[in-house]
From TrEMBL:
InterPro entries: ERG24_DHCR-like
Family according to the record: Belongs to the ERG4/ERG24 family.
PANTHER family per the UniProt record, alphabetical: 7-DEHYDROCHOLESTEROL REDUCTASE, DELTA(14)-STEROL REDUCTASE
Name the UniProt record assigns to this protein: 7-dehydrocholesterol reductase
Originating species: Neohortaea acidophila
Segments passing through the bilayer: 7-28, 61-83, 103-122, 134-154, 223-243, 263-283, 289-308
GO molecular function: 7-dehydrocholesterol reductase activity
Coarse class of the protein's main subcellular location: membrane
GO biological process, one term: brassinosteroid biosynthetic process
Protein location: Membrane
GO cellular component: endoplasmic reticulum membrane
Keyword annotations from UniProtKB, A to Z: Cholesterol biosynthesis, Cholesterol metabolism, Lipid biosynthesis, Lipid metabolism, Membrane, NADP, Oxidoreductase, Steroid biosynthesis, Steroid metabolism, Sterol biosynthesis, Sterol metabolism, Transmembrane, Transmembrane helix
Amino acid sequence: MGRANTLTNVVSTFMVLWCPVWVTMNWMSLEYFDGSLPALIKAFWTTDDALSMIWRYLPQASWTASLAYASWLAFQALLYYALPGKTSFGQRTPGGCRHRYEINGAMAWAITHLLFAVAVVQEWLDPAWIAKNWAGLFVAANVYGYLLAVFVFVKGRYAPTNVEDRKFSGSWAYDFWMGLELNPRIGSHFDVKLFHNGRPGIVAWTLIDLSFAAWQYEKFGSVSNSMLIVIVLHTVYTLDFFFNEDWYLKTMDITHDHMGMMLAWGDAVFLPSFYTIQAQYLAYHPVQLSTPAFIALMALGMGAYAAFRASNSEKLHVREADGDTMVWGRPATALRCNYWTADGKEHQSLLLTCDWWSIARHTNYTADLVLAWAMCAPCSGDGLVLPPWTYFIFQFVLLNHRIIRGEESCRNKYGEKWEEYCEIVPWRLIPGIY
């Protein structure tokens, strides 16, 4: 309570208003300005009637797309609730809770894509339908994202799942943006955060890519090898998420970030519209890479993914073994830290100091950034002015923001032990530099 200030209010209000503008600008630039953000900005800057121009270029709602989007949400919710899955438990919350989850995301992804494939093969569905109805789906997702943000805000104030894991800042704007509840639930089973973090957007990610690839084929007669790189790397990334969904329960998204507009609107709109930006761009502007460039970028992306997965798996493995295990042929090393939850109970955690985690404190983020670069590079073009490259810029800012917030949380949680850990592993992201 009471930790918000004027700057917090201003920044939170700005984010609530600006984020939809940002993704809409990306859509406009692709639809009307040949994928050039500078051209879009110049057009708005020089026009005599900006309001009319905005209205003319805004994506339009569609009843067909809105119904399809509502059906999509209902179908994914049904799969989330009804499919069997492995029982897993999240990390202990500050309030002392360990929530139970049924992990079935991989099965939901497989069923969804199988049904999509059958519908396309049987000619019940145009494979490019998503791409052709993208504007209407984009509007429907925005409406839902804001409604969800309002819902979790009201629920957090008046009907929290666990009072001990709810926090107020003293700022309505900040609380709306960052969230009140850590793990809001409807009933005992339906976890609002995990569902929205993992289902409507991430399951759709590869479907959206495939639809824009089909649209590229329909317009140009072939699918570019740059599109293939994007689809392969995105598919690997999404499958990694679902095959390691129990690991995701231990990440910052679940253990630290409260459910506000940042996650609610972000999961509904930002993830499916922004994380697929490369496929959207290539559907308009196919890039055919040379064979050496194709091989190099694919290898770089897969290598970065391998490092990302290996580092995360190592952390999970060592913690599950309570440090009593081998990694890279040597005994694992870690710093043991005690901490206390809000219920007054003492617990212990491990901060790894071996192998991947001896290189930097966030080696997984380093690999994630290299992978993000490999996803954007196939789009080629004029560099950072293109919408696809805004994904890499966003990832760089996001991951550094997470580093700062995460390390502040660890400093408060572990005290002197955290300072000792930073002396053992001095680099955050890039050894010798940062």
